[in-house]
Amino acid sequence: MCREPLWDFGVTDASAPRTFQHTFTLENVSRHSVRVAGVKSMCGCIGTLDHPNTIAPGVTANVTVNVNVAGPPGRFSRTVEVELEQPSRRMLQLSINGTVRADATIYPTPATVDFGRLAVSDKKVRQVRLSRYDGRAVQISEIESTGSPVSVIGIKALDEQRSTLEVTLEYNGADAVLGRADLPVPRLSFERP
Hints:
Blueprint: E1 6-13, E2 18-27, E3 34-41, E4 46-50, E5 54-55, E6 60-69, E7 74-86, E8 88-101, E9 106-109, E10 123-132, E11 140-144, E12 150-157, E13 164-172, E14 187-190
Parallel strand pairs: 1-8
Antiparallel strand pairs: 2-6, 3-5, 3-7, 4-6, 7-8, 9-10, 10-13, 11-14, 12-13
């Protein structure tokens, strides 16, 4: 059993992804040794550092987890499952909760823009959305696309508050270098509220 199966890391800002480490203490209150068959999470944001193979009767053992907290604001809630064999198999659930606070961070959707396979003469257009976690207006103060075959050809507000903008990017193959490459993209400067 675990006397404290719930851990709350508190509040962290959306703009400051953090890695927390926490140790859950398991205690064997039975008269038999308990085998720990495994520790897993369905989220890639949680990793286990170590766990015991067996817990003797009346003994405690630690399960240490690293939690990478990032992403949109709101409640963060994840579960770690400890698979125990004592003499029958059962799952012990450990919960990790907290809050990601909204701030002025601007995030793109999608995070990367894929223009696909390109020929020198190609022109392709892709859209990316820029949003703020706190819901306030996104203000672009400058666009710089020097030396890039990718340029901004349009910006459109998707909501009345201007908290989400759709930026249209165009790839112009006439300005490109041949070969496989990560293309430089226009640099956008934003005004702080």
